[in-house]
Amino acid sequence: MRLLAALLFAGAALLRPAAAQTSIPAPTLDAVRARGHLICGTAPNLPGFAAVDGRGEWAGLYVDVCRAVAAAVFGDASRVRYVATTTQNRLPMLQTGEIDILASNTTWTLTREASLGLEFTGVTFYDGQGFLVRRSLGVTSARQLAGATVCVQPGTTTELNLADYFRRNAMQLTPLVIDTLEEVRSAFLSGRCDAYTIGRAALAAFRAGLGGQADEFVLLPEVISKEPLGPVVRKGDQRWFDLVRWSGFAPLLAEEFGITSSNVEARLNDPDPEVQRFLGRSGGFGTILGVRDDWAFQIVRQVGNYAESWDRNVTPLGLDRGVNRLWTDGGIHYPPPAR
Question: What is the superkingdom listed in this entry's lineage (predicted)?
Fold first, then answer.
């Protein structure tokens, strides 16, 4: 009898996951709702990832992360206030609560997650560090940069990777450490350094933005690091972590299902039970996350799936998706199932 009672109790618990979750404290979600908008910290001047476009609006792959969270919380992807961050202030601003989420060119590392009271919710973009040089320098490999002056920002994984690469290859390095991205780029263009190093996507975006001068610069073939870049939140607020994490998975799942911003309404009637759960027609998953059950539907309708975001923002830079493709297409994006 005791065993039967235990089994019945366990079965009943499985049938009411939403009720069990509603009591979880949600201080960040409550604060965002009360304020009426999300505060998103992001790096400025990264075309394709985070920048103000010609219409004066923020746009980019990282910007779409915050738009997706706002769509999930409010049913309105526009309810975001963007705060331009630097490599020096971005993590302290998140720690002190000045921003609700950091969606920037920030690498997921052990020290950042284990010692700063912060937590990465997933990976938006898989990148790797590279080098940009003037074609006239005649350099075709990073191994030819011994003794070079390299422009780099302080307090970044980029700076550490640069020092490690030169030390590992017994090469002499003269780093030119400059605080802001704009000043780093100006120093490079003015010839104060031989090479400019950061993530290869940012280098490609910078070169593409040079217009007619782009052919004067060469992106060297070496990739000297792993740079998984994704949203960061404060530790200790599990409800907010879950919501931001699944707002990142939603565009990937939508791409898996073949759901786009243009067909999402028609797919509400799709008989596939997994699609029904994903779009909020069954399952009550929004309730579990603390938002409306149509949270994923709103993300896809207003922001699009991951491929749409990529094509809108990154494809114009001439970057191939590479490892950022879905696992079904030879990439490593592998979102957990919505069930």
Answer: Bacteria
Question: Which residues fall within 8 angstroms of residue 106, CB to CB, at 6 or more apart?
Answer: 90, 91, 112, 229, 230, 232
Distance CA 106, CA 96 (A): 17
In tens, the pLDDT along 29-53 reads: 999 999 999 999 998 888 899 999 8
* CA separation, residue 183 to residues 49, 50, 224 (Å): 19, 18, 23
- Contact predicate 317/205, CB 8 Å: yes
Q: What are phi and psi of 179, to 5 degrees?
A: -65, -55
Which uninterrupted H or E stretch holds 105?
none
The structure tokens listed for 190 are: 């003015």
Instruction: Give Cα separations from 174 to 150, 151, 185 (angstroms).
Output: 6, 9, 17
Q: List alpha helices for 16-60, DSSP H.
A: 17-21, 27-35
Residues 129, 200: contact at Cβ < 8 Å?
yes
